[in-house]
Amino acid sequence: MIAHATTHAARTVTSVPESEASTFMTETSVPLPPPPPLSTRSSNNRRLYVALPLLTLSWLILFVVVAASLVHIQRFELAPGEALTVGPRIEFVSGEEQAPPRYETEDGIHFVTAYGAKLSALDSFVGWLDPDVQVDTYEERFGNQTPSSQRVLNQQAMVSSKQIAEYVALKRLGYNVELIFGPAIVGDVICEETPHPKSACEVLKVGDTIVEFTGAPVNVLTDLFPLTEGLSPGDEVEIKVRPSGSDVVDTRTVRVIANPSDASKTIIGFVPVDTRTVQLPFDVGISTSDIGGPSAGLAFTLAILDELSEGNLMGRGKVAATGTINDDEKVGAVGAVRQKAVAVRDAGVTLFLIPASQSQQVIDEARKAVGSGVKVVPVATLQDALDALRDNGGDALPK
């Protein structure tokens, strides 16, 4: 039975007509690959299940990063800027007197800047992670001011800083110089804990110019001083004000307050902008383009002294300074000292002069930021700064 069945099957195959044989061979001559084992198919499925969520998450992260870099929020940076040489920015032009000989220095003193731009959400996150960057809110950055008014005041502060530096330096060298007071411009307002609706805190705006006080004209800031005598806290006075950028004069009523630091004295309630100008025997120009603020005053003063005296005032290495300068040669505190310390470190500075009036915490932070390669010296006066430069190998000023 078995042999018969096999013979029959063979006959069945050989009896296929020739016309159908080619079709049969074509359809069956290339065998299909065997299906993959079940274990391999399960492994591929597991990989797919893992890869798809990861790919989706990657695209979501990319989208969030791009969106965060494009969306600007009310956050502002205070970041390290640059250490810039003052000497090449100075120009002496003959005026009433012939401009004196100039002793140009190879490097000279550097002033230091800090950056402060509005941030995107991504920049804010990165800034919070960077110990050298300070991220401020709108209130922390501007207080009672607006961005535009602060920009105007910073430019005015830079102009005043250069004027006072020229006055101090030329007076120190023996030239005949004079300071001239300017208009009474509101630089900031002083607010009580619960300000009255008519207090200066509520009535005056940053950038306002006071042109009249209780009927008396106010041409320069010093005109205000005698006009406030005899007033008591709570008295209301009528003033005339010209807002910033306007030619229209407004009449306002201001309620004066007690001086927060001395209750026996009465003040209007605002901090004036330093609008003093200096009268010099020859013109001194310092180019600072769009840099604002008063913190380069000490560096400007030292640069002028260096350019107008023989020898090397700075001494060894590269020197930088930050700090305001007053007409009595006192050096005042400034902001962003830590950020400026990082900038001088990156610029290769070896001696960094900072105001002695900074808090001990700020001084310690500056020393930590610069590391062991930079010597940080706090100075309270111009003479302190000159002494520090002598210790650095600098030459003395001429008698």
Describe the structure.
It contains 12 helices and 21 strands. The protein has 399 residues and is an alpha+beta fold. Helix 6 (147-172) runs parallel beside helix 9 and helix 10 packs parallel to helix 11 (360-370). Strand 12 and strand 13 (262-267) form a beta hairpin. It folds into 2 domains: 72-176 and 277-391, Ribosomal Protein S5, domain 2; 184-272, PDZ domain (Pdz3 Domain).
CATH architecture of the largest domain: 2-Layer Sandwich
Report the biggest beta sheet as strand number plus sense, adding barrel if it closes: 7 strands, mixed
- Total domain modules: 2
Number of strands: 21
**Which fold name corresponds to the CATH topology of the largest domain?**
Ribosomal Protein S5, domain 2
How far the N terminus sits from the C terminus, by CA atoms, comes to 137 Å
CATH class category name of the largest domain: Alpha Beta
Share in helix = 25-40%
Keywords summarizing the entry:
21 strands; alpha+beta; 6-stranded antiparallel beta sheet; Ribosomal Protein S5, domain 2; single chain; 12 helices; 399 residues
Write the topology of this structure.
Layout: H1 2-14, H2 18-28, H3 38-70, E1 72-85, E2 90-93, E3 109-115, E4 118-120, H4 121-129, E5 134-137, H5 138-142, H6 147-172, E6 178-180, E7 184-189, H7 200-203, E8 209-213, E9 216-217, H8 224-227, E10 236-242, E11 250-255, E12 257-259, E13 262-267, E14 270-272, E15 277-279, E16 283-286, H9 297-307, E17 319-321, E18 324-325, E19 331-332, H10 337-346, E20 351-355, H11 360-370, E21 375-379, H12 382-391
Parallel strand pairs: 3-17, 17-20, 20-21
Antiparallel strand pairs: 1-3, 1-4, 1-5, 2-16, 6-15, 7-8, 7-14, 8-9, 8-10, 10-11, 12-13, 18-19
